[in-house]
Specification:
Layout lengths: L2 H4 L5 H23 L10 H22 L5 H8 L5 E5 L5 E5 L10 H10 L6 H14 L8 H22 L4 H31 L8 H6 L10 E3 L1 H5 L12 E4 L5 E3 H12 L12 E2 L9 E2 L4 E2 L30 H12 L1
Antiparallel strand pairs: 1-2, 3-4, 4-5, 6-7, 7-8
Helix pairs in contact: 2-3, 2-7, 2-8, 3-5, 3-6, 3-7, 6-7, 7-8
Bound molecules: zinc ion (3 copies).
């Protein structure tokens, strides 16, 4: 039994239409969720914005796969999930291979789209797509308000992906096929890029330890998850420094107006990115620094991102095992060899 005959017919133009409709709806939802309720906005639309945008982007990807082959049967076999084919008895001592269960025409998921793209050499920034997918997955469990800022970040990040895909892969002008949704994305994207740049410049004057700057860049508002954080205005005017005034220095979220201490947030961002699960036998990769007391000592890099302290002894001179902060009093030996050495001296 050939797979083609099992697949329902595929209408590529329909895929395209649905993709564009979904993206347009997503942008409409996005605009509504970013508008204050007093002006007719609705924060709850954040969820459908992400859902629609994610669905639209996947449909657009499937459309591209469908038009990459000439034969509609081939297109169908690439887009629909093939049913599982299993062996069974033919009743005469032989084997018969047959599709299992009733065939339901589901289409391929993100993982399979990625494989198809690799096979057909279609390039896309998967990091952004995967982050959108994660956002969609965790948005279902969160109050919409906590992620309004994050959704705004995503729409801004998604813009270049959609733009390049439509221009390069579909060879069409995005403004023509997305209409006003395109203008909204464009405006929002440039607003986001400009604002983010202003934030970076403002922090550059706030004396953040160099090693912490990349983590500041990754930090998100604790209220709305936006990455558009800037130093609270009071602090810059007073010539305050993040490094010196960590107990009072606050950030201001430009998306929701929330203010809070910046240093605990950066440290938390660093630690979250180095999250580990002791139940899986994993070990921490960040710990408190003996010199400055911040939770910013990166164990495998053997230095502190806050105060730049480096280890005097980095590996055991007998077994070459990497050493940590607690091994420094052993004069360049790991704890095992320090122990053996001490025992030998006593005997
Ligand atoms: Zn915020
Ligand atoms: Zn330190
Ligand atoms: Zn050793």
């Amino acid at each position: 039994m050939s797979q083609q005959r099992l697949n329902p017919e595929l209408d590529a133009q329909k895929l395209r239409e649905n993709a564009l409709t979904s993206i347009r709806l997503g942008i409409e939802d996005f605009e509504r969720c970013q508008t204050a309720p007093s002006s007719g906005g609705d924060p709850a639309r954040a969820l459908s914005a992400v859902r629609n945008l994610f669905a639209g982007v996947l449909l657009l990807f499937k459309y591209k796969i469908a038009i990459s082959v000439d034969d509609p049967n081939d297109a169908a076999s690439l887009i629909f999930t093939p049913p599982e084919v299993l062996p069974q008895s033919d009743g005469n001592g032989g084997v018969e291979w047959a599709p299992k269960g009733k065939f339901k025409p589901t289409t391929i998921d993100v993982g399979t789209i990625k494989k198809r793209f690799e096979g057909f050499e279609i390039n896309v920034d998967w990091k952004v797509v995967e982050r959108l997918q994660n956002c969609r997955n965790h948005l279902e469990h969160l109050h919409p308000a906590t992620t309004l800022g994050e959704v705004a970040d995503f729409v801004a990040e998604l813009f270049p992906v959609v733009r390049d895909f439509i221009q390069v892969q579909l060879e069409e002008p995005p403004a023509d096929i997305l209409g006003t949704a395109w203008q909204t994305m464009l405006l929002h994207h440039s607003f986001f890029v400009d604002t983010k740049e202003q934030c970076r410049k403002a922090w550059a004057a706030a004396n953040v330890p160099d090693g912490m700057t990349p983590w500041l860049d990754e930090s998100q508002c604790e209220e709305c998850s936006s990455s558009l954080l800037t130093p609270g205005p009071l602090f810059i005017d007073d010539g305050a420094s993040v490094e010196r005034d960590e107990d009072t220095f606050e950030y201001l979220c430009l998306a929701c107006g929330n203010t809070d201490l910046i240093v605990p947030l950066i440290v938390e961002t660093l630690n979250k990115a180095h999250d580990y699960d002791p139940r899986d036998g994993e070990e921490p990769s960040v710990e408190d620094c003996i010199e400055c007391g911040h939770g910013t000592f990166v164990i495998y890099e053997q230095n502190c991102l806050w105060c730049k302290t480096e280890l005097e002894y980095t590996e055991c001179w007998i077994c070459e095992e990497g050493l940590g902060q607690s091994d420094q009093d052993n004069g360049g030996l790991c704890s095992y060899h320090a122990h053996t050495y001490e025992k030998a001296m006593r005997e």
